[in-house]
Amino acid sequence: MEQLIISKTIDFVKKTLAGAEAGHDWFHIERVYKTAKQINHTEHGDELVVALAALLHDIADSKFNGGDEEVGPRLAGDFLKSLGLDPDVIVHVQEIIRNLSFKASLGQITFASKELDIVQDADRLDAIGAIGIARAFTYGGFKNRVLYDPEIKPQQYADKEAYKNTVAPTVNHFYEKLLLLKDLMKTAAGKQMAEERHQFMLTYLDQFYAEWEGEK
């Protein structure tokens, strides 16, 4: 029964995200789903909740929906209700979606669970390392942002509204978010996987600056 639910959810996500921005498309969802399952091997969270939250976490990302942070939880909830799932499972998945993002951590967090930690780590791992670099520049291109401007320094955001409204160069995003994620990992597996990806980003930035200055 659970496998049928997951299969229907995969079909729903693929259909809904057809044509999505390449950093937040089905392939991003699939990577997060696989990583969340891998982390859950040692964390032993509720397998169905982890799977559904991973699959539905970006079903309607607020940054592509006029900043509406409830459209994702609402769409996910409506879909899960159509499958006749236990209301407790639906609410749990919605709360994970609602509290998963980095910008959510800049506001008030009122929900916590092992399953949130697992899916959040999986999502954050996809934002760093080689894939994370590719996704950052893909989204920067989508928003027509400059790659790098030495005159525009990275900043710390006081709240999620400031973070949401940034138009900073893509390289700044490494310092404003990506390089911070390693120390925000919650699970043992997530922390371990983040180390190598974090170092890869540091190496990449060294190469980037050397090339920018014409040194290599």
Describe this structure in words.
The chain is an all-alpha fold and 216 residues long. 61% of the residues lie in helices and 0% in strands. The protein contains ten helices and no strands. The protein has helices spanning 2-16, 26-43, 47-56, 71-82, 87-99, 114-125, 129-142, 160-164, 170-176, 188-212.
Main attributes of the structure:
single chain; about 220 residues; mainly alpha; about 60% helix; globular
Brief write-up:
This protein has 216 residues and is mostly helical. The chain has 10 helices and no strands. The model has no long low-confidence stretch (mean pLDDT 91).
Would you spell out the secondary-structure blueprint of this structure?
Elements: H1 2-16, H2 26-43, H3 47-56, H4 71-82, H5 87-99, H6 114-125, H7 129-142, H8 160-164, H9 170-176, H10 188-212
Helix pairs in contact: 1-3, 2-3, 2-6, 3-5, 3-6, 4-5, 5-6, 6-10
Rg over alpha carbons: 18 Å
Q: Report on the biggest sheet.
A: none
In terms of DSSP E residues, the strand content is: under 5%
Q: What structural class should be given to the helix and strand makeup?
A: mainly alpha
Number of helices: 10
List SSEs in N-to-C order: HHHHHHHHHH
Uncertain stretches = none
**DSSP, total strands:** 0
Indicate the multimeric state.
Answer: single chain
Mean pLDDT: 91
Share of helical residues: 55-70%
General form? globular
For the record, give the distance between the C-alpha atoms at the N and C termini, rounded to a whole number: 57 Å
